[in-house]
Amino acid sequence: MSAVDAQSEQTGHAPIGRSASVAIPPPIARAFRAAIDEAARFVGATAPNPPVGCAILDRHGDILTVAAHHRAGMPHAEALALRQCAEQGLMARAAIAVVTLEPCNHTGRTGPCSEAILASPIRTVWVGVADPNPRVAGGGIDRLRAGGCAVQVLDQDGDVAAACRALIAPFAHWSRTGRAWLTVKQAVDAAGSMIPPAGRTTFTSDSALTLAHLLRRATDAIVTGIGTVLADRPGLDVRRVADHADRAPRLLVVCDRTGRVPADWRANAVARGFDVRTCDDIARLPEMLGAAGVLWAMVEAGPGLLAALRAAGLWDDWLTIGVGPDGTERLDVAVRTGTDTPLRLFPELAAVLTAPEGEACFPAS
Ligand SMILES: NC(=O)C1=CN([C@@H]2O[C@H](COP(=O)(O)OP(=O)(O)OC[C@H]3O[C@@H](n4cnc5c(N)ncnc54)[C@H](OP(=O)(O)O)[C@@H]3O)[C@@H](O)[C@H]2O)C=CC1
Ligand SMILES: Nc1c(N[C@@H]2O[C@H](COP(=O)(O)O)[C@@H](O)[C@H]2O)[nH]c(=O)[nH]c1=O
Predict the structure, then answer these.
(1) Most CB atoms within 10 A, among 29, 122, 217, 297?
(2) Domain shared by 310 and 289, yes or no
(3) Which ligand has the nearest atom to the CA of 282?
(4) Which parts of this chain are annotated as the region Disordered (predicted)?
(5) Could you tell me if 200 and 328 lie in one domain?
(6) Residue 241: helix, strand or coil by DSSP?
(7) For residue 192, what are the contacts with CB-CB under 8 A and spacing of at least 6?
């Protein structure tokens, strides 16, 4: 019996493969954490594919290798992890795969991961969350079971399962609706105003600005309003944080009904690598982004556009950063569609999300 199965037995929880509720044995939880962290490094690089991480363990629960999907067209996490195992001469010891998302069972840009796992010595698979993609939806798990693997899918509760769902929240939303996930990021000063002091475009703290750039890096597109473009001539590019996987958003959408985007600003944005488009009907914005392969977009706009998005219910989560009335740093998150928000991936925000009362703050003047 493996250490991992033994752990289940000692704790009295159902062993791998049963559908009954299971506590995650510590070696498996550790492997999930490693796979989640690796996948999180590529959030913002994989669209239209989801970010996925995979760890391969030996029968004692020791991690042999960890890998993630880097970008569409490149190997899936499981395929890369198996390749690393083989390259390192560790394949004979491979016994358990821990995958944040159900392995695929179709031939897309790469071969089916279920078959790659079945062709290896691995016979136990832990899955963080079933694939919401209708082309996969349970097929990978069924194929693995039919091929002789014991497969355990995590329960809905618990931090590990929540992190696996957070990783694919935009992908799940896009797969079901064709719409991009919209995160509004709003900076406010102590008086509740969004308008920066004269001569400046930002006013929040150093750490808040870093968080804003981390968010830019994690998303696939930035949405702004023509008022902001005209007032700030914003860069909206990723700075302040390293961009190891070339994750900077490629698409920049300006909500503008009157064709006022200045040619020189557009040319600058294009020179920085942006595909600049305009949107004259915000009702169509999520579909427009989704059709462009955007899973997750961040809105950085002024009070005019934010009020319109709020009134139309066109947001999935809403992050307010800045200074509270008492002068202290504030960080509020409102989540519209349950708790499966990708903002959970940011440690600073995970703390806010688990707070009993996440206060929502909506457009300031
Ligand atoms: N603190 C913060 O987080 C931020 C602050 N700002 C600040 O905000 C100020 C600019 O704010 P504001 O002038 O309100 O500009 P916005 O960036 O909010 O852009 C407003 C424009 O959005 C367009 N828009 C509004 N509703 C719709 C709709 N339904 N469909 C399509 N387009 C729509 C309109 O374009 P049209 O006129 O063509 O109809 C409108 O003029 C600046 O001072 C800037 O520094 C900006 C970003 C973030
Ligand atoms: N004022 C404000 C923000 N505002 C957003 O940042 C834009 C400037 O981006 P850039 O030109 O790339 O530095 C600005 O036009 C607006 O969209 N963001 C914040 O994190 N904190 C702030 O205080």
Answers:
(1) 297
(2) yes
(3) 1
(4) 1-20
(5) yes
(6) coil
(7) 325, 364, 365
Ligand 2 neighbours, Cβ below 6 Å, are: 187, 196, 201-204, 208-209, 212, 224, 228, 232, 234-237, 300
Neighbours of 66 (CB within 10 A): 23
User: Has residue 309 got a pLDDT over 60?
Assistant: yes
Residues 160, 204: one domain? no
pLDDT of residue 14: 34
CA distance 306 to 295: 20
Nearest protein CA to atom 15 of ligand 2, as residue: 234
Q: Whole-prediction pTM value? A: 0.91
Closest residue by CA, ligand 1 atom 8? 302
**What's the one-letter identity of residue 67?**
A
18 in any annotated domain:
yes
Asked if residue 75 is part of any domain, the answer here is yes
How large is the ipTM?
A: 0.94
Shared domain for 164 and 183, answered yes or no, is: no
Res 339: pLDDT: 64
Asked whether residue 364 is domain-assigned, the answer is: no
| CATH number assigned to the domain comprising residue 123 | 3.40.140.10
Q: Do residues 173 and 43 make contact, with C-beta atoms less than 8 angstroms apart?
A: no
The CA 276 to ligand 1 mean position distance, Å, reads 16
- 361 found inside a domain: no
- Nearest ligand to the CA atom of 231: 1
Kindly state the average pLDDT of the residues 159-188: 95
Q: Which domain holds residue 149?
A: 3-170
